[in-house]
Design a protein that fits this description.
Elements lengths: L3 E19 L5 E21 L3 E6 L11 H12 L6 E7 L10 H16 L6 H8 L6 H6 L2 E5 L4 E4 L8 E5 L7 H11 L7 H10 L2 H7 L11 H12 L4 E4 L6 E4 L3 H11 L6 E5 L6 E5 L1
Parallel strand pairs: 3-4
Antiparallel strand pairs: 1-2, 1-11, 2-4, 2-5, 5-6, 7-9, 7-10, 8-9
Length: about 300
């Protein structure tokens, strides 16, 4: 019987994002291309003698109560497998910035589901865990499965698609100002979009392994309404510093650029320090949350 597990929970990028409608319950229908990157949060999950779910985090700003997605994911998992009488503690080591559009909360929830599956040896498949994750948040199923996938519906309807070239250098930069997902979508509802990504064309470019035209065709309808000058400044600085294309991820406010070489990406990182200190040089990966150790 295992007592403790360690998990790496990768963040995500939206390589393109369109809004295609509204569901009857008010949620937005999206069409997006998700991509896992090796910017990860780390989780330690342990058994506790006392029943209950206990969450701690190294970020004081992040609530660790029942509203935390890691807490919600743990409760859903224990209910799903009839383990409500168990006690678990979850310690979050955050590396993915908050309010960035990088899926930090969803990654943590995915890490909890993968970790508890290992801790209790329940033997669930990734697909079953993704089913549970869909009850926690729209991006959680992707953060479990990972790789490169097209997401529709709320983002939970996933289809594997061709990936970026292996180890594509990616620079991520987070402005000091953030934006909540709810606020970002509210602004979109008020103003709409003047341009939309051409998903069939982008997928064709991925299929052909053509990074340059793919990067130039990336588009995010929520970037239009971000109202954050630093988003546009960072995108412009990335392109001027060699990025093949640059765009805001998800609901923002983090911006990313795709590069042809790691040398060019490093050059860009140096230039971006003029605008922000929250910069990450990462690459695409083919998996979601993974167990690093259990004992």
């Amino acid at each position: 019987m295992y007592q403790k597990v360690a998990i790496a929970a990768p963040g995500k990028l939206n390589l393109a994002l369109d809004i295609t409608g509204r569901q009857p319950d008010g949620y937005h229908e999206i069409d997006t291309i998700f991509q896992s990157v090796d910017l990860c949060d780390f989780l330690q999950i342990s058994r506790e003698r006392q029943p209950g779910i206990y969450v701690s985090c190294d970020r004081p700003r992040l609530p660790c109560d029942e509203t935390n997605l890691a807490h919600i994911a743990a409760r859903r998992f224990l209910e799903w497998f009839g383990l409500e009488g168990q006690g678990v503690s979850i310690d979050l080591e955050k590396r993915i910035p908050l309010q960035a559009g990088l899926g930090g909360g969803s990654a943590d929830a995915a890490g909890v589901l993968v970790g508890l599956n290992a801790l209790f040896d329940t033997g669930a498949s990734l697909e079953e865990l993704a089913q549970i994750g869909g009850k926690v948040g729209a991006d959680v199923p992707f953060c479990i499965l990972g790789g490169t996938r097209r997401g529709r519906g709320r983002g939970e309807l996933l289809e594997q698609v061709p990936s970026l070239p292996e180890r594509t250098p990616i620079v991520i930069a987070k402005p000091e100002a953030g934006i909540s997902t709810a606020e970002s979508y509210r602004r979109y509802d008020q103003r709409g979009a003047h341009q939309r990504p051409d998903m069939p064309e982008l997928l064709a470019r991925l299929e052909a392994g053509e990074l340059v035209p793919f990067a130039k065709g990336m588009y995010n309808v929520l970037q239009e309404v971000s109202d954050l000058p630093q988003v546009e400044q960072l995108c412009g600085k990335m392109v001027a510093s060699g990025a093949l294309g640059a765009m805001m991820s998800g609901s923002g406010s983090a911006v990313f650029g795709l590069f042809a070489s790691r040398r060019q990406a490093k050059h860009c990182v140096r230039k971006l320090y003029e605008l922000t200190e929250s910069i990450f040089l990462v690459q695409n990966i083919s998996h979601g949350a993974v167990v690093l150790d259990r004992r």
